[in-house]
């Protein structure tokens, strides 16, 4: 008699390791590493990424606060990456636009949570069944340990059905060649 084993423990173990290697890869990537920020935590379901931006010699500007470029750059990548991983290979995801509001100078380590909920993923998938592309905006607050907001970054992410995106790119190239 063949006994079917419950592999729930294996699935949770693999999810935890996937999150661990994702965090490690992000932190070791040269472009992200140069921001001065680090990914401290990735949830096993890949819906939350916690970022830490330390106040140190490499992130300090001339006036003694965290460099604005570091505040901005540290939020670059988590949302598109989480969306791409959740949506799968049939979709294209790009960072499209971003803006930053400086609320107060950062003179201590700052933290941010990048979140893409399961409901958000379901909503994006639903929208993409009715239209081939969509823009979504995500707000990231960089806060100190006390929860005081030092800056707010809004990032617009472009998400499209891969077939639509390829067709759109082809048409754009043909138009450019004809001109």
Task: Give an overview in words.
By secondary structure, this protein is an alpha+beta fold. The chain has a single domain, classed as Roll (Thiol Ester Dehydrase, Chain A). It has six helices and six strands, in the order H-H-E-E-H-H-E-E-H-E-E-H. It has helices at 8-28, 30-33, 68-73, 78-87, 118-130, 162-178; strands spanning 38-42, 48-53, 91-102, 110-115, 133-143, 149-161. The strands form two sheets. The chain has a three-stranded antiparallel β-sheet with strand order 1-2-4. Strands 3-6-5 form a three-stranded antiparallel β-sheet.
Number of strands: 6
- Counting structural domains, the number is 1
Going by helix content, strand content and strand pairing, the class is: alpha+beta
Q: Report the CATH topology name.
A: Thiol Ester Dehydrase, Chain A
The topology string of helices and strands comes to HHEEHHEEHEEH
Helices and strands in order:
Blueprint: H1 8-28, H2 30-33, E1 38-42, E2 48-53, H3 68-73, H4 78-87, E3 91-102, E4 110-115, H5 118-130, E5 133-143, E6 149-161, H6 162-178
Antiparallel strand pairs: 1-2, 2-4, 3-6, 5-6
């Amino acid at each position: 008699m063949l006994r079917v084993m419950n592999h729930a423990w294996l699935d949770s173990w693999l999810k935890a390791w996937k999150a661990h290697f994702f965090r490690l890869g992000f932190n070791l990537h040269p472009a992200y590493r140069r921001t001065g920020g680090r990914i401290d935590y990735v949830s096993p379901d890949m819906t939350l990424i916690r970022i830490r931006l330390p106040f140190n010699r490499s992130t300090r500007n001339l006036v003694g606060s965290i460099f604005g470029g570091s505040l901005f750059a540290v939020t670059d990548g988590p949302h598109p990456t989480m969306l791409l991983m959740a949506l799968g290979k049939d979709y294209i995801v790009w960072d499209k636009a971003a803006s930053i509001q400086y609320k107060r100078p950062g003179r201590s380590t700052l933290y941010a949570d990048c979140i893409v909920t399961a409901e958000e993923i379901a909503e994006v998938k639903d929208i993409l069944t009715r239209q081939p592309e969509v823009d979504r905006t995500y707000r990231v607050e960089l806060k100190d340990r006390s929860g005081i907001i030092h800056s707010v970054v809004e990032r617009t992410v472009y998400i499209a059905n891969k077939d639509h995106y390829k067709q759109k790119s082809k048409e754009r190239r043909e138009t450019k060649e004809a001109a």
